[in-house]
Amino acid sequence: MKAMSLVDRPTKLARTLARKLYKRLDTTFGRAWTSLVEDEMSDAEARQALDTQYQVTDPFKMDSPKEQFRFAETNRILAAGLIAPQSRVGSILEIGCGEGHQSEYFSRLCDRLTAIDPVADAVARGRARLPGAEFIAGDLYDQPWANDLARFDIVTACEVIYYFKDIPGILRKMSRLGRACLVTYHRPAAYLVEGPLKAMPRGGRATFVFEDVEWRAAWWRSP
Ligand SMILES: C[S@@+](CC[C@H](N)C(=O)[O-])C[C@H]1O[C@@H](n2cnc3c(N)ncnc32)[C@H](O)[C@@H]1O
User: Fold this and answer.
1) 46 in any annotated domain
2) Is residue 177 within 8 Å of 151, Cβ to Cβ?
3) I want to staple 133 with a disulfide (CB 3.0 to 4.6 A). Which of 8, 113, 125, 152 is the partner?
4) Does a structural domain hold residue 125?
5) What's the total number of domains in the chain?
């Protein structure tokens, strides 16, 4: 077994404490998905937890004023940061579409929306909600086009990046697949996301707030 160096030890301790703190803050905000960011959860356990969550309709309360505000703000940021002066783009890939609530918003900004999520029940509901979009139930990395360069005009990952154990890897994948990218995340998760984001090309940043909840957005054009 590899011994932990003196350099690794404080970093690992800090990460563990930060994760615990994030879990505490997140519980305060009543979110249901925090445990999936835990490194200790295997991929199979994480998938099982997601499948279980989607046994009920709208487990994340996406119809609530708070989430509807988030979708509208995200569209505003996307339009101003990556689409203007045009009013729409040809294609958007939405990673982590769930039941398609945010897909409805993204579809207003593009001609073709491709939306992907590993949970088949959620994707089936998304398909029914938005028949004009392409919904894929599965893993992004398993798609035949997963290594394509600039396949989409924009790739989005909203409130989903923390589900990936390799955050730098998914950011690089987004940058390869899209001519431009947008990520949004819940502020208490910033410690997980903002380090890896520094490796992406310089783009824009924004913060938006609804009552006691803050989100951050980052976007960039791929090289
Ligand atoms: C908190 S919800 C966010 C849904 C939507 N993006 C939004 O912002 O409202 C997270 C979604 O990410 C999905 N997800 C989890 N792991 C994923 C992965 N590896 N690839 C794509 N989606 C994933 C979950 O199934 C869930 O639908």
Assistant:
1) no
2) yes
3) 113
4) yes
5) 1
Peptide bond into 85 cis (omega under 30): yes
For the four alpha carbons of 20, 25, 166 and 45, in that order, the dihedral sign comes to positive
| Nearest-CA residue for atom 11 of ligand 1 | 96
The answer to whether residue 148 sits within a structural domain is yes
Range of the domain at 212: 61-221
Which of ligand 1's atoms lies nearest the C-alpha of 119?
25
What is the rounded CA–CA span in Å between residue 92 and residue 113?
Answer: 5
Instruction: Centre a 10 Å sphere on the Cβ of residue 120 and count the other Cβ atoms it contains.
Output: 12
Query: Is 19 part of any domain?
Result: no
Q: What are the structure tokens assigned to 108, written together?
A: 């207003």
Could you identify the atom of ligand 1 that is nearest to the CA of residue 101? 9
pLDDT at 19: 52
Q: In this structure, what CATH number is given to the domain that contains residue 103? A: 3.40.50.150
pLDDT: is 76 or 37 the higher one? 76
Q: Output the residue whose Cα is nearest ligand 1's atom 5.
A: 97
**Beta-bridge partners for 182:** 156, 219
Judge if pTM exceeds 0.70. Answer: yes
Model confidence over 48-65: pLDDT tens digits?
989 999 999 999 999 999
Please tell me what DSSP assigns to residue 79: I
Rounded to the nearest whole angstrom, what is the distance from the C-alpha of residue 96 to the centroid of ligand 1? 3
